[in-house]
Amino acid sequence: MSPEMIRLIASSTGETLYMVGVSALIATLFGLPLGVYLATSGKGELFAAPWVNRILGVIVNATRSTPFIILVVAIIPFTRLIAGTSIGTNAAIVPLTIAATPFIARLIEGAIREVDQGLVEAARAFGATPLQIVLKVLIPEALPGIVLGLTLAIVSLLGFSAMVGAVGGGGLGDLGIRYGYQRFMPEMMLAVVVVLIVLVQAVQSIGDRLARRLNKRIRHG
Amino acid sequence: MNAPLGYLGDQPSQRLIPAEPIVRLEKISKTFPGRDGQPVTALREIDLAVPQGSILGVIGRSGAGKSTLIRLVNGLEKPSSGKVIVDGANIAALPESELRHARRSIGMIFQHFNLLSSRTAAENIALPLEVAGYDKAEIKARVEELLALVGLSDKRNRYPSELSGGQKQRVGIARALATKPKVLLSDEATSALDPETTRSILDLLARINAELGLTILLITHEMAVIRNIAREVAVIEGGRIVEQGDVFEVFTRPKHEVTRSFLGDEAGRVLPPYVQNRLQKEATPDSQTVIRIGFRGPHATDPVLARLAREEGIEANILSGAVDEIAGRPFGTLVVSVPAAASLKTLDFLKKHGLDTEVLGHVA
């Protein structure tokens, strides 16, 4: 493998990490409150607003059921508005964030719903406000589940980020398509796949380890 | 929040009527919307008063409405009609923000403890104080005090998963006491514990009641809980209170079928099978009448059968019997059989001596 190729792989890996990192961060920023709200605004819940809950649910589902590659193309005008361009790594962050936000919201909703309702009742019984219940009970108790959810989301984003190569987003996917496929360089394709596998493994094991450390429900030897 | 720490600092507030109960339910009814549109009535016209400093137990089968009842007291449930007066305020009518404040003076413990798994024992106890806005130093001092009170000072940094059921409930109790409540609500707090641990938790609650003067309202389906710590009892069935009063009175002279059923598994209430199987409703010329005798208080140790033989010449067969304690007072049950011909004389003799009698049937 030539030094040129290695340089290409390194810079593409950097682009991928940048896209995935920034979009995961922004998507978590939006997805966390959205997920908490989805989990607590149902009928009879802390912030009961069943209609808002239903409408948000429909929007989240609609976004999630749109194939990513179609989403990327469909929101080009919006991407241009936000990023100033529809091509390149920064532009790719916009659809990645939009795809990841509802995904993360659903994962966080699930993690929050796993928290024993008895804890919410106990917190209400000692006079906690709904916001205090979210911040001091629900999120801390759901944290191991939230971390696992975010890990899953980042792994999915690594996959999505390969697709934005198709619209000039850069990154490993772009490299694999342009060199590996279009220029018939199987060794480049292989290298891209290997780097992606290593990244996914690394993210997953860091996430698992962190979740395990946060989970106090299990006795640690 | 700069409330003084420690119970000694709290003086009972001056009242015009000192006998005013700390918790009073007035004509409480509660209906839930049912699945098929038919409303389900959980509680009907409940009147209940919990005197200051007392331990009142509500006993009932599952589904009798006791869970709903206890949740009304701290406003986790709202009544469909009626008033819930706690320490002078109508909990049922308070707006949410005032209700939250009122809840700080009503502690609650739960069957499944409801501790945060992500917090240590000390951090769990600190939570109500954090929520109430105490400062760090105050919280630290108060938590130490509470850990010592429930005997868990050495477990302060343990997570709930590292504690036994009894220890978890002690943490639950300490958490419930953190904001120095006037009332403690206990929702089946010992139902998930073994008898020995139950005993130690009940002892702790009794000690807290005695030392801190804390009023305790507990619900349970276990007779042992009522017998060991309650002074007053209310028996609930089908959303109604069917019997209410002093524990000893209610359980030595049960009036309602449900009350009797709770006594059913207590010592001396169960007939031996060879008697139970032969029991018939009608007397026959040669039959024996089976009588249950209840000895209460001072009579519990009288040699009454010896006197029955000596003074009336009636010899009774003892079929089963036990002497026990309810609310700290001796209480005996004896099941005897006497010849049918002598049964009226026997009943008269026993009543004359102040004993409770009940004819259970006849055996040939």
From TrEMBL, chain A:
<feature type="transmembrane region" description="Helical">
    <location>
        <begin position="188"/>
        <end position="207"/>
    </location>
</feature>
<keyword id="KW-0813">Transport</keyword>
<feature type="domain" description="ABC transmembrane type-1">
    <location>
        <begin position="13"/>
        <end position="207"/>
    </location>
</feature>
<comment type="similarity">
    <text>Belongs to the binding-protein-dependent transport system permease family. CysTW subfamily.</text>
</comment>
<dbReference type="InterPro" id="IPR035906">
    <property type="entry name" value="MetI-like_sf"/>
</dbReference>
<feature type="transmembrane region" description="Helical">
    <location>
        <begin position="17"/>
        <end position="39"/>
    </location>
</feature>
<feature type="transmembrane region" description="Helical">
    <location>
        <begin position="51"/>
        <end position="76"/>
    </location>
</feature>
<dbReference type="GO" id="GO:0048473">
    <property type="term" value="P:D-methionine transmembrane transport"/>
</dbReference>
<keyword id="KW-0812">Transmembrane</keyword>
<keyword id="KW-1133">Transmembrane helix</keyword>
<keyword id="KW-1003">Cell membrane</keyword>
<feature type="transmembrane region" description="Helical">
    <location>
        <begin position="82"/>
        <end position="105"/>
    </location>
</feature>
<dbReference type="InterPro" id="IPR000515">
    <property type="entry name" value="MetI-like"/>
</dbReference>
<protein>
    <submittedName>
        <fullName>DL-methionine transporter permease subunit</fullName>
    </submittedName>
</protein>
<dbReference type="InterPro" id="IPR051322">
    <property type="entry name" value="AA_ABC_Transporter_Permease"/>
</dbReference>
<dbReference type="Pfam" id="PF00528">
    <property type="entry name" value="BPD_transp_1"/>
</dbReference>
<feature type="transmembrane region" description="Helical">
    <location>
        <begin position="146"/>
        <end position="168"/>
    </location>
</feature>
<keyword id="KW-0472">Membrane</keyword>
<dbReference type="GO" id="GO:0005886">
    <property type="term" value="C:plasma membrane"/>
</dbReference>
Automatic annotation (TrEMBL), chain B:
<dbReference type="Pfam" id="PF00005">
    <property type="entry name" value="ABC_tran"/>
</dbReference>
<dbReference type="InterPro" id="IPR050086">
    <property type="entry name" value="MetN_ABC_transporter-like"/>
</dbReference>
<keyword id="KW-0029">Amino-acid transport</keyword>
<keyword id="KW-0472">Membrane</keyword>
<keyword id="KW-1003">Cell membrane</keyword>
<keyword id="KW-0547">Nucleotide-binding</keyword>
<comment type="similarity">
    <text>Belongs to the ABC transporter superfamily.</text>
</comment>
<keyword id="KW-0067">ATP-binding</keyword>
<dbReference type="InterPro" id="IPR045865">
    <property type="entry name" value="ACT-like_dom_sf"/>
</dbReference>
<dbReference type="InterPro" id="IPR017871">
    <property type="entry name" value="ABC_transporter-like_CS"/>
</dbReference>
<dbReference type="GO" id="GO:0005886">
    <property type="term" value="C:plasma membrane"/>
</dbReference>
<protein>
    <recommendedName>
        <fullName>Cell division ATP-binding protein FtsE</fullName>
    </recommendedName>
</protein>
<keyword id="KW-1278">Translocase</keyword>
<keyword id="KW-0813">Transport</keyword>
<dbReference type="InterPro" id="IPR027417">
    <property type="entry name" value="P-loop_NTPase"/>
</dbReference>
<dbReference type="Pfam" id="PF09383">
    <property type="entry name" value="NIL"/>
</dbReference>
<dbReference type="InterPro" id="IPR003439">
    <property type="entry name" value="ABC_transporter-like_ATP-bd"/>
</dbReference>
<dbReference type="GO" id="GO:0006865">
    <property type="term" value="P:amino acid transport"/>
</dbReference>
<comment type="function">
    <text>Part of the ABC transporter FtsEX involved in cellular division. Important for assembly or stability of the septal ring.</text>
</comment>
<dbReference type="InterPro" id="IPR041701">
    <property type="entry name" value="MetN_ABC"/>
</dbReference>
<dbReference type="GO" id="GO:0016887">
    <property type="term" value="F:ATP hydrolysis activity"/>
</dbReference>
<dbReference type="GO" id="GO:0005524">
    <property type="term" value="F:ATP binding"/>
</dbReference>
